[in-house]
Amino acid sequence: MTLLETINERALLGDGAMGTQLQQAGLEPGGCGEAWNVEHPERVLAIQKTYVNAGSDCLITNTFGGCEVMLERYGQAGQVAEINRAAVQIAREAFGGRPGFVLGDMGPFGGLMEPLGEVPEERVREAFHEQAEALVSAGADAIIIETQTSLEELAIGIEAAKKAGAPCVIGSMAFDVMHDGSDLRTMMGVGPEEAAAFMVEAGVDIVALNCGTSVDVGWAAKVVPRYRAVCDLPTMAQPNAGTPALVNMKVVYRQTPEEMTAELPELLDTGINIVGGCCGSTADHIRKFRELIDRRAEEHSS
Fold first, then answer.
1. Which end of the chain is more exposed for a tag (fewer CB within 10 A), N or C?
2. Is the Cβ–Cβ distance between 92 and 102 less than 8 Å?
3. Pairing mode, if any, of strands 142-148 and 101-106?
4. Residue 88 scores a pLDDT above 90
């Protein structure tokens, strides 16, 4: 079955963070983790296998910064197709023949488009299209345009994914909790309802959220109903493992697997279709998610 057919039958479990895991595997600070798909595929594979062994139904490819604009900063601009295709192959291999879905990851291009910034819109369009083509041609089950704060950039990513023929297109926003804790918006001032309405109009198949300042499982559980208030599309959430702290000049996410999972029932009660973790989450967090999801499924069937 396709991803969209499967989520009509049951909730799926995604994976956890990739960047912090790459650093633990030896990626130097400021290094190009996406290049590891070609240079050290065995290390990327090992990380994704830990998520599969923890129970992930979906793996997001190691291509968050895999567009030409981002890769150019590391001298890898000519490797877009190779890096993205390798990432899909690695994720597929990680399932080891078991059923699972590979979500081709497209993150922000890392700047501001004209007129707010210096990057021409057409360059971003070409870069996203090239990346989407590589991911789809390699066999990704879906494209997720994630950690987006600008509707203009999100629209370009969605257009690229649809033009490339992606079987499923997921739009995922990164919200920040306001200082007074009363609400949340993206860095560009977009709220959940506006984001959901925009994504519906743009033609996504799944509306999602991930990352963002202080956006934990509890906050994700508040956003999903707000998405559903303005659209009837399937939903996905990848919250962070709590709010980070600066420890010895390093950003550390302190929420334990047990603490993160404690809030999960509220998110599952929203009818979420795909749930995973973002910053700070590990295979241990995902394993706890799996245990709870399976336990609830058993309770509902008995």
1. C
2. yes
3. parallel
4. yes
pLDDT tens for 96-133 read 999 999 999 999 999 999 998 999 999 999 999 999 99
Grade residue 301 by pLDDT with cuts at 50, 70 and 90. confident
Of residues 77, 93, 84, the one with CA closest to residue 62? 84
Domain boundary assignment for the chain: 3-301
What average pLDDT score do residues 257-285 get?
97
β-strands 169-173, 206-210: how paired?
Answer: parallel
pLDDT digits (tens, 9 = 90+) for 209-244: 999 899 999 999 999 999 999 999 999 999 999 877
Residue whose structure tokens are 């990626």: 27
pTM of the model: 0.96
Architecture in CATH for domain 3-301? Alpha-Beta Barrel (3.20)
The runs of H, that is alpha helices, within the chain are: 3-7, 19-24, 36-39, 41-54, 68-71, 80-94, 121-137, 151-163, 192-202, 217-228, 257-262, 264-268, 283-301
DSSP 119: B
Structure tokens at 257: 């697997």
- C-beta of residue 167 within 8 angstroms of C-beta of residue 200: no
Picking from 118, 117, 110, 105, the residue whose alpha carbon sits closest to that of residue 71 is 110
Contacts of residue 97, defined as CB under 8 A and 6 or more positions apart, other chains included, come to none
Instruction: Find where tokens 């994720």 sit.
Output: 91
Of all residues in the chain, what percent carry a pLDDT higher than 70?
99
